[in-house]
Amino acid sequence: MQIDVISIFPEYLDPLRHALLGRAIEQGTLQVRVHNLRQWATGVHQAVDSAPCGGGPGMVMKPDVWGPALDDVAQAHGPAAHADVWRSSLPHQRQQRHDQRQGYIPSGYDRPRDCTETEDPSLPLLLVPTPAGIPFTQAQAQTWSTESHIVFACGRYEGIDQRVFSDAQKRYRVREVSIGDYVLIGGEVATLVITEAIVRLIPGVLGNHQSHENDSFSDGLLEGPSFTKPRQWRGLDVPEILFSGNHANIDRWRRDQALLRTMQRRPDLLSTIELSPEDRRCLELGHSPVDDSHQPRG
Ligand code: ADE
């Protein structure tokens, strides 16, 4: 996957070099290029923004700067052709992790491309982070993890002149996306969030392919609690059932914990998934029926 980011604060994107994303870059799974928007600004002041038409507070980013930037990045032309392709700088990331030693076979996602009937599926995807966008979800992260070229346009101030996106539809599939109902100063942090959510789903990036199959939201539920050794810590025990060796019961218990947590923290999600009779029984009881700790002790 190739990711291009256009921003007036390119250093904001430095975290993309680290940890999992850095490793994906080193593996050659991910290519990142970060472009400074000011390369496309003209005039003595290299202004990238201007007062909003019709008045009002703040500044709007100029179409005559964004337009050429998006044209060049789509065609790897002009200043965009000379951008550095990032290499991670952290040598320890080359070490093999424990979950990579188990003979992992990457598998792809069987998801349709994010493309409307009027769009050309071979065009790159242009993601524009904005609080006014459609909500970014795990389902989108999964769909977009199969893209070959994603470009992020990071706006600042009161946003980017809307004509930029009408025009960009000739060269991109354009999506304006929000990472939540709050307002950030610009699109850079949202770009980091969206990139991490997408890249960790590219087959081979996470190491252990199972580790994202149990993610929160991947089955419409929040993920339940996790435990590791020691079995007792500060007077707190790991739930007994996890040592029972009965994997059917353990799977049921985990599903029940996910259901109970979702009911408590995100009840809105429960109405969007299909519940089995076992799921309903757990939610009615308020605990997992396979959990012995809820049986009366005699
Ligand atoms: N830019 C500013 N706020 C944002 C948000 N909530 N999501 C995406 N991009 C943004």
UniProtKB/TrEMBL annotation:
Residue ranges of every copy of the tRNA methyltransferase TRMD/TRM10-type domain listed in the record: 1-76, 125-271
Keywords linked to the UniProt accession: Cytoplasm, Methyltransferase, S-adenosyl-L-methionine, Transferase, tRNA processing
Record-listed S-adenosyl-L-methionine binding positions: 155, 179-184
Pfam families listed in its UniProt record: tRNA_m1G_MT
tRNA processing listed as a keyword: yes
Compartment(s) where it occurs, according to its Swiss-Prot or TrEMBL record: Cytoplasm
Superkingdom assignment: Bacteria
GO biological process: tRNA N1-guanine methylation
A GO term for molecular function: tRNA (guanine(37)-N1)-methyltransferase activity
The keyword Transferase is annotated on this UniProt entry: yes
Catalytic activity, reaction form: guanosine(37) in tRNA + S-adenosyl-L-methionine = N(1)-methylguanosine(37) in tRNA + S-adenosyl-L-homocysteine + H(+)
A GO cellular-component term linked to this record: cytosol
Main location: cytoplasm
Top-rank EC class of the record's enzyme: transferase
E.C. no: 2.1.1.228
Region spans: Disordered: 89-117
Subunit structure: Homodimer.
Family per record: Belongs to the RNA methyltransferase TrmD family.
Function per UniProt: Specifically methylates guanosine-37 in various tRNAs.
Listed NCBIfam families: PRK00026.1
Identification of the protein by name: tRNA (guanine-N(1)-)-methyltransferase
